[in-house]
Amino acid sequence: MKIYTKTGDKGSTSLFGGTRVPKHHLRIESYGTVDELNSYIGLIRDQDIDTLTKSTLSKIQSDLFTLGAMLATPPEKETLKSGKERLNIYKISDDSIQFLENEIDLMNKTLPQMTHFILPGGHQTVSFCHIARCVCRRAERLSVALNEEETINDSILMYLNRLSDYLFVLARKLTQDLKAEEVKWIPEKL
Fold first, then answer.
1. pTM, entire model
2. Amino acid 77: pLDDT
């Protein structure tokens, strides 16, 4: 397979199913941001962290590839004329969302109760989690905007929302694991 096709040299690209759209199309922005998020999660996974977290992050990366494929498929191309699904892969579902919720609950059991907002930082690995969380929120905002133009699967929005929560709690867990300081945000008084 050749890596370059030259078909995008004039600023357009193909969605799954062959529809061509400009590279700035909201659908491209949505799954492009999911791809960026996936790269940041890979960066977190490459850090010196526990094996269970690395395994969880690998599953999340796989789910994000699936989510990207779902976003790359316009509604009119989801099924063939025969009625068969065009995208014949596992889809993000309630089980995917429940997996994230279970992981959040497990981590939260070991963490002190939050009493203040927390400033991002304290350790490079923790900062990578906060960057990933922010990119996840951007992917969510773009997907919400896309959903207002063309309906997308509800599971995509729920998964991105829950993943952002997971990344926040993971940052707190890694702060604890790495014996870093969790800096509380205490607003200055006027």
1. 0.88
2. 57
